[in-house]
Amino acid sequence: MSTTVNALLRADLRDFGGYKSARSETLAGSIWLNANESAWANAADSSALLRRYPQPQPEVLCARLAQLYGVAPAQLLVGRGSDEGIDLLLRAFCMPGQGKVVIAPPVFGMYAVCAKLHGAQIINVSLHDSEEGLCADLQAMGDAALAQNASLLFLCTPGNPSGELLALQAVATLAQRLRGTCIVVVDEAYLEYADAPSAATLLSDFDNIAVLRTLSKAHALAGARVGCVLAGATLIDALRRCQAPYPMPQPVVEAALAAVGDSELALTRSRMAAVRETRLRLADGLRALPLVRRVYTSAGNFLLVRFTDADAAFTSLLAAGVVVRDMRAMPQLGDALRITVGSADECRQVLKALDTRVWEAAA
């Protein structure tokens, strides 16, 4: 066991074994009467498989995802989307009512939500708005983590909603600085859209890095809720002991396995290239509109856009049947909307709905 990770783990969980389900027992037999399952399949279950509990960590899926993400199966925990990974990290490393986490708002809201639900103190180190974009200050985040003895530090790359792609060396430098004191969590939910290397390549050098991945975005399985934590084997074992049993229903496992087959992955990669091309065209089109103040460069499948009149933009999009994410309640984003890069036709509809010159011609 990594002594560093064990030292960072909640003291009351270091010897905690977690729940041992009947399905987790490595026993052999042909008549299974150890889990109080029904002796009959449900009449609606044509597979006759759903009467059995699924594997806590489905071996075939874990092996395939480990191959996809370039890690060993022991370095991967699969669960109910990246959200469960965030929650498990809070459970494992933050004592309720005492733990501290560092985040860089405006950013994905579940870091703060999970921290609040767990009673952890949130240390905000705001993104810096500059000519380069909305950028995380990793030096300041590291300073805050060290000064306030934070247990977790969350990075999002590409950033949501900023679109910022962090340099891998900068992540490594931060992890080195916080080694032995804080877990650096790197959320890579949108990394496929960036076509950039993963922080998972740093796991052999840093036991205080945890990477979040998901099948919700690029792999188009948002409704299936499949996410992973990638980390050293000791950290993964600690999270597994905190995880509720049976996180992956059998139909979800089958859908996920089908989605990451060789031909499916090839199609996904071609679609990522198409998204990157459409993202550039949409950004150029938006920048040409009188209503648009700024379009941030993005490595994700979305664009963060500032408007001269965000309310008029939001209203006009809704009137055209286009729903985007209103960011105006988030810090620093009182004039901003986040627009997903949809199909080429959907993006044309966005541009048409936002073109005030069309409004004037129709008046």
Keywords:
363 residues; Aspartate Aminotransferase, domain 2; Aspartate Aminotransferase, domain 1; 2 domains; seven-stranded mixed sheet; 13 helices
Report on this model:
By secondary structure, the protein is an alpha/beta fold. The chain folds into two domains: 3-12 and 56-260, Aspartate Aminotransferase, domain 2, CATH 3.40.640; 264-362, Alpha-Beta Complex (Aspartate Aminotransferase, domain 1), CATH 3.90.1150.10. 38% of the residues lie in helices and 15% in strands. It has helices at residues 3-8, 59-69, 81-93, 110-117, 138-147, 168-178, 191-194, 233-242, 250-259, 262-287, 310-319, 344-354, 356-362, and strands spanning 76-79, 100-103, 121-124, 128-130, 133-135, 152-156, 183-187, 209-214, 227-230, 292-295, 302-307, 325-326, 336-340. The strands form three sheets. It has a seven-stranded mixed beta sheet, with helices on both faces. Strands 10-11-13-12 form a four-stranded antiparallel beta sheet. The longest helix has 26 residues, at 262-287. The radius of gyration is 22 Å and the shape is globular. It starts with a helix and ends with a helix.
Report on the biggest sheet. Answer: 7 strands, mixed
| Low-confidence parts | none
Q: Give the strand order, joined by hyphens, for the main sheet.
A: 1-9-8-7-6-2-3
Q: Which bin fits the share of residues in helices? A: 25-40%
| Mean pLDDT across every amino acid position | 95
Based on DSSP secondary structure assignment, what is the total number of beta strands?
13
Measured between the Cα atoms of the first and last residue, the distance is: 70 Å
The tally of structural domains comes to 2
Q: How would you describe the shape?
A: globular
Strand % is 15-25%
What is the fold-level CATH name, i.e. the topology of the largest domain?
Aspartate Aminotransferase, domain 2
CATH class category label of the largest domain: Alpha Beta
